[in-house]
Design goal:
alpha/beta, 5-stranded mixed sheet, 4-stranded mixed sheet, 11 strands, about 10% strand, globular
Length: about 425
């Protein structure tokens, strides 16, 4: 690695990576074995420690290695663990050949000089949707390709809505959604649950409403941003949403909805399997923007990247491995296993043909947006922290939405 890259690495705080990572990914632990001296062995690190030897995922890695004529040595880490270990390995000149990492971390690692660009490693990303690819872009360059995407939408309980006299087809914007919540409340039912906890999860769940207002993360206290936070604040004041949202994670919020008492829940693609087992009829609606149409929801999911190597001759085989992992056939199997929506139109069509329930998620992913898009890069974690603090302040009543966001913008500057 060049000395300039090492200096950039030294300047990256590990807390920056930790703040951005882990919103919609699995957890667990893994060993920290590093690359062997054998040039026929290529190391791969991923955030899927739940997949053990013999799993479909590990079999795919082995198959891709065999196809490329090498052995793949794979280690699965917890998401936040993976980000930290990647920075340390890069500092030591011992990066894995292939790194699969949560998408908000990509720009941080790229700015630290850890990752090669797709121009460097010749990885073809032409089939990937531009809005999904943007999560792995920084400074006009692309660093890897998404292996899949998940995002947020509104689950709804058909029975609760029917008893409240709500036609889901009428819900097209914030006004009609709020009117539906009012009907639900007047019918003695519970309205909507979500996560507004003071962590990245809270920012993740607020972003569709923030972006759906027309606000931008570079201007946290704009009138549009204030309208989004006022929407949530108004729902709590009128009893449409419970005070528990202040402490809800996405998991506990889901548990509230799974009780069968709530009309709506904001949650992710990863809950689809649980929804099918909940014991009541449900539907999924993309989150509406303030004036109608689908709001941009943040993308979750990982990117397949190629870290910088001192031996650049390794990139040719690394490209074979990454191309194999992200091929049309393998993406379908992998994204089905991970409950992801594919990043390419061809594979998404196969997914919907096999499971029509995925169509609303496909629609949501098509308008989704990376949290670090707009070249926010390492600024995003700082902005996100102030955003979730503003949400907490406004919903708890300690500040008005306007004052909370004014303070957030001042802190970011």
């Amino acid at each position: 690695m060049h000395s300039s890259s090492r200096r950039r690495l030294a300047a990256v705080a590990l807390s920056t990576v930790l703040a951005a990572a882990g919103t919609a990914c699995s957890s667990g632990s893994g060993s920290s074995d590093t690359k062997g001296a054998d040039s026929g062995t290529y190391t791969l690190w991923d955030p899927y420690p739940q997949f053990a030897k013999g799993s479909a995922w590990v079999k795919l890695l082995d198959a891709c290695g065999s196809k490329a004529g090498v052995k793949v040595k794979r280690t699965g880490f917890d998401t936040s663990d993976l980000a930290n270990k990647t920075l340390l390995a890069a500092q030591q000149g011992n990066s894995p050949d292939v790194l699969i990492v949560d998408n908000p971390v990509v720009s941080t690692l790229a700015e630290a000089g850890v990752l090669t660009t797709t121009e460097d490693n010749k990885l073809d990303t032409s089939a990937v949707d531009p809005n999904l690819l943007a999560a792995g872009q920084s400074g006009g360059k692309t660093y890897g390709t998404p292996i899949g995407a998940n995002t947020l939408a509104l689950y709804y309980n058909k029975k609760v809505l029917k008893e409240a006299g709500v036609d889901i087809a009428s819900v097209k914007d914030w006004t009609s959604l709020t009117a539906a919540l009012d009907k639900v409340r007047k019918a003695d039912k519970k309205g909507i649950t979500f996560s507004a906890i003071g962590t990245e999860e809270g920012s993740f769940q607020f972003l569709p409403w923030f972006w759906g207002s027309g606000a931008a993360l570079t201007d946290l206290d704009s009138p549009a941003a204030v309208s989004a936070l006022s929407l949530w604040k108004g729902w709590l004041e009128k009893g449409y949403a419970p005070n528990s949202v202040l402490n809800n994670t996405q998991t506990t919020s889901w548990q509230e909805f799974a009780s069968g008492d709530y009309a709506f829940a904001e949650n992710g693609t990863w809950q689809l399997a649980a929804a099918k087992k909940a014991g009541f009829d449900f539907g999924v609606l993309p989150i509406p923007s303030s004036d109608g149409g689908n709001a941009a929801a943040p993308t979750g999911g990982e990117f397949v990247t190629a870290p910088v190597q001192s031996d650049t001759a390794r990139y040719a085989t690394t490209r074979k491995l990454t191309t194999c992992l992200t091929s049309t056939t393998n993406l379908y199997d992998t994204d089905t296993t991970l409950s992801y929506v594919a990043p390419t139109d061809e594979v998404r069509k196969k997914q919907v043909a096999a499971d029509p329930a995925l169509q609303p998620w496909v629609d949501a992913v098509k308008t989704a947006k990376g949290r670090t898009s707009d070249d926010l890069g390492t600024q995003y974690p700082k902005i996100s922290e102030q955003l979730w603090k503003a949400v907490q302040s406004a919903l708890s009543g300690s500040k008005s939405p306007e004052d909370a966001l004014t303070s957030a913008q001042a802190a970011v500057k």
